[in-house]
Design a protein that fits this description.
Elements (H helix, E strand, L loop, with lengths): L11 H5 L3 H4 L15 E4 L4 H13 L6 E6 L13 H18 L7 E6 L6 H11 L5 E5 L6 H17 L2 E5 L3 H4 L12 E5 L2 H12 L2 H4 L14 H4 L6 E5 L2
Parallel strand pairs: 1-2, 1-4, 2-3, 4-5
Antiparallel strand pairs: 6-7
Helix pairs in contact: 3-8, 4-8, 5-6
This protein binds zinc ion.
The site of zinc ion (ZN) has 5 residues, from loops.
């Protein structure tokens, strides 16, 4: 269900006070798991870092993870007085390259699929992901119920591609932390797994988030140039763990 992403959303202090995450099973990430580099599918440049930047950092350099960025995020600031959508697309692609580099991902492991921001072609995306997935490979992407139309479309496409190929779908919430509340019955908490981050992974994730100035700082003083990820939103992505929903 697409939900309005407005207002301040649920305060991070509320999430931190919620005891449930401590009871979720931890997802093992070590030398043996996963056995092949996961494919991380980001609807917009930055979702890969917000959702699972710590996981990507823990998988290490080289062939640690592959990143597929579905759109260029050019619609993040409609009506911007500073950057055109074409300029924003170029800026955001460059930010992803820098951020993923900080997580140990080589440029060759990042693919930009070039769908229009706000109009993901689910059929084409499903086919593209199907060619990249193999049985048991982790496909890590935004949850189908995350509330943002692109996040949900990408989640659905990944779910179909995983069904076709036998890959393992791991879905991460991004905007869910904004509109949901602890124990929200609309969220599949029973499928939640915790990825406990090492101190090094947390620190790499912090640096990677800082590599998105177009999103974390205003582009200019006009309301249309406001930061998409102000501090109260970023606070949700500074936790010592990340969350995925398993099948
Ligand atoms: Zn996004």
């Amino acid at each position: 269900m697409v939900r309005p992403i407005v207002g301040a959303g649920t305060d991070e202090r509320t999430w931190r006070a919620w005891p449930a995450p401590a009871t979720w099973p931890a997802l093992a990430v070590d030398g043996r798991t996963p056995t092949t580099p996961p494919l991380v599918v980001a609807p917009h440049p930055d979702d890969e870092v917000l959702g699972v930047g710590g996981l990507v950092a823990m998988l290490g350099g080289g062939a640690g993870a592959e990143i597929a960025v579905v759109t260029d995020g050019e619609a993040s600031h409609p009506g911007s007085t500073v950057h055109s959508p074409v300029e924003l697309a170029a800026i955001r692609r460059a930010e992803t390259a820098t951020a993923c580099g900080l997580l140990g991902v080589a440029p060759a492991a990042i693919a930009h699929l070039g769908h229009p921001d706000g109009a993901v072609d689910e059929t084409a995306l499903t086919d593209a992901l199907t060619t990249r997935l193999t049985p048991g490979r982790w496909c890590v992407t935004t949850w189908r119920g995350d509330g943002h139309p692109d996040h949900e479309a990408v989640g659905r496409a990944a779910a179909v591609a995983c069904r076709r190929t036998g890959a393992t779908l791991l879905e991460f919430p991004v905007w869910t932390w904004h509109w949901a509340e602890p124990d929200d019955p609309g969220v599949p908490w029973h499928r939640a797994r915790r990825i406990d981050l090492t101190e090094a992974a947390r620190s790499a994730k912090r640096e990677a988030i800082d590599a998105f100035p177009s999103q974390i700082r205003p582009l200019g003083p006009a309301p249309a140039d406001a930061a998409i990820l102000p501090p109260h939103v970023l606070a949700r992505f500074a936790r010592p763990y990340e969350t995925v929903f398993v099948p």
